[in-house]
Each structure stands twice: as C-alpha cells, then as structure tokens.
Design goal:
The strands form two sheets. A two-stranded antiparallel sheet has the order 1-2. A two-stranded antiparallel ribbon has the order 3-4. Strand 1 and strand 2 form a beta hairpin. The protein contains twelve helices and four strands; from the N terminus they run αββααααααβααααβα. It is mainly α. The protein has three domains: 75 residues, no CATH class; 102 residues, Cytochrome c-like domain (Cytochrome Bc1 Complex, Chain D, domain 2, Orthogonal Bundle), CATH 1.10.760.10; 89 residues, Cytochrome Bc1 Complex, Chain D, domain 2. The longest helix is centred in the first third of the chain and has 24 residues. The radius of gyration is 34 Å and the shape is elongated. Helix 5 packs across helix 12 and helix 7 crosses helix 12.
Length: 294
C-alpha cells in the first residue's frame, strides 16, 4: 500500500471516529436544559402520548463514549490505520500459521504412528482411511471430485485404470512429485485433417467403436503414436500414455474429442505436494487413494 492511500485511510478513520464524538457532544442535553412540561416536546403525539426531548441517561451516553475510546485503543493495538501494523503486529496469516502449528503438534503423533504401517495395511484400517479421506477432501477433491471419480481431464481414482500405475509406491510418488502429462500435436505427423480422422477411427475401433474415417488407413498412420501408446495401443505407464483399448477416457471418447487431441495435443499437470504436506500425511492420503480401487 502506498503512503498516500495509507494516510487517506487513517484520515477517514479518524474523521469518522471524532465526528461521532463531536456529534454526541453537540447534541447532548443536560438535565438543567429540561424546561417546563409541555414545552419540551418534539410535537409528536399519538393516542394521548407525547414524545419528549429529554436527555439520554448518563449510563447510555457514557456507553457511546466508551465505544469511541475502545475503537481508538483497538486501532492502536491492531491493524486498521492504513499500513500501520499495530502494537501487537497481528495478521490473519500469522494467526492461521499458529493454529496450524498447534494442530500439527497435536496430531503429528497420530500421523507418525500411521507412518509405521505400510500403505496396504493402512488401506485396511478404517480409522486411517477416514483420516486420509479428510486430507484428500482438503487437498485433492477440487480436481478429482469429492467422490474421487474425477471429471474431464482429471482421472477417476476409484477404478483400476491408472496412467502412472496404481501400486502404493506409484501413488505415493505421484503425490510427492506431481505429474506432467504432455501429448504433442500430431496432426502434421498423421497427414493433416483426413489423417487425424482416420487415426481417430482406428483408435475408436480398438475399444469396439466406429468413426467416420478409414480405420484401416488410420492403423498405418497410428505407427507414429505407437512410440508412446504401444503397437497394440495399450499405453505405457512409465510415460503416462493412456490405454486406448478400453472404454475409459480422460478427455472423452467422441470422435471430435480424439481428433482434437491429435490436432492440438494434451497437457495435464498435477501439482507436487512434497512442499505443502508432510511425508506422514502423504502416506495416509496414499493409503486412502489406494483403498478406493481395491
């Protein structure tokens, strides 16, 4: 925040506080200001009841003065005067960090105990799975969904189809290091738009479907794709190349979706969690994800 805006905020804040103080003082009425009955009214009357212009009770008026004094002291101790941090130097980020530290000190013992068991053992531990589910909900559900069934571009974690392998070690590596999937555009390599349509027809035929292109011609052109997906189209987990012979599709199994993948390529990135989650927590999440497909 620039100095100008900081001063501007301070000026507006103090103007409003002292404006309230002046308004209270200016409109105050002392008991001796009360005049003869009938002459101290506001002119409002209903059903024989008149509205009098009497002074506020002292305790009520003093309560207003107290709130003004409180606001000045509060803004001295805590942030509020522009960029002034306050005597205590409080920030919401610092408070959050302290709360996280307190929670870690409380629960780290539990995670250390879980880390002594293998992922396979934790996957059969109902309590550990519940803990892993909550960690998953906070860190993974935004992409893979609360039910872990994924969506377009985000893999389903509840089946047995894995891009990089579904072993405990592979799942844990994925969480620690993240993944970067990259399929380059192949439209030039397969001979343009018609070639892409032919390859799409062949790819669809691998899972028992048909396309509008020439599948037989597409089979020959598919050879440029075999380096990643294999000659049989069953993929390569070491490279993250998906199996094209089943009916599980990351970006959709329509002819249009496949042609788009050939023409434009695909890029998928899963972030690494080694900097944001402790090894023990990653161990527990791995057990939960592993349990989903077992």
């Amino acid at each position: 925040m620039s100095t100008f805006w900081s001063v501007w905020i301070i000026a507006i804040t103090l103007f409003n506080i002292f404006g309230c103080l002046w308004l209270l003082w200016w409109t105050r009425k002392k008991p001796e200001d009360v005049i003869e009955e009938g002459e101290n009214t506001l002119g409002h009357e209903f059903d024989g009841i008149e509205e009098y212009n009497n002074p506020l009770p002292k305790w009520w008026l003093n309560l207003f003065y107290f709130t003004i004094a409180f606001s000045l002291i509060y803004l001295l101790l805590f942030p509020g005067y522009g960029s002034y941090p306050g005597v205590f130097g409080w920030t919401s980020a610092n408070q959050w960090e302290r709360e996280v530290e307190t929670a870690d000190n409380t629960y780290n013992r539990i995670f250390r105990d879980y880390a002594k068991s293998s992922i396979e053992e934790l996957a059969n531990n109902p309590e550990a799975v519940k803990v892993g589910q909550r960690l998953y909900g906070n860190n993974c559900s935004v992409c893979h969904g609360s039910d872990a069934k994924g969506s377009k571009g985000f893999p389903n974690l509840t089946d047995n189809d894995w891009l990089y392998g579904g072993t405990p070690e592979a799942i844990k590596t994925t969480l620690i290091k993240g993944r970067n999937g990259n399929m380059p555009p192949m439209i030039a390599a397969v001979g343009g738009e018609q070639g892409a349509k032919d390859v799409a027809a062949y790819v669809l035929s691998l899972s028992g479907q048909t396309g509008s292109g020439d599948a037989e011609a597409g089979k020959a052109k598919f050879m440029v794709c075999a380096a990643c997906h294999g000659m049989d189209g069953k993929g390569n987990q070491a490279m993250g190349a998906p199996n094209l012979t089943d009916n599980i599709w990351l970006y959709g199994n329509s002819e249009e979706a496949i042609i788009e993948a050939i023409a434009k390529g695909r890029r998928g990135q899963m972030p690494a969690f080694e900097e944001t989650l402790s090894p023990e927590k990653i161990h527990v999440i791995s057990a939960y994800v592993y349990s989903l497909s077992q």
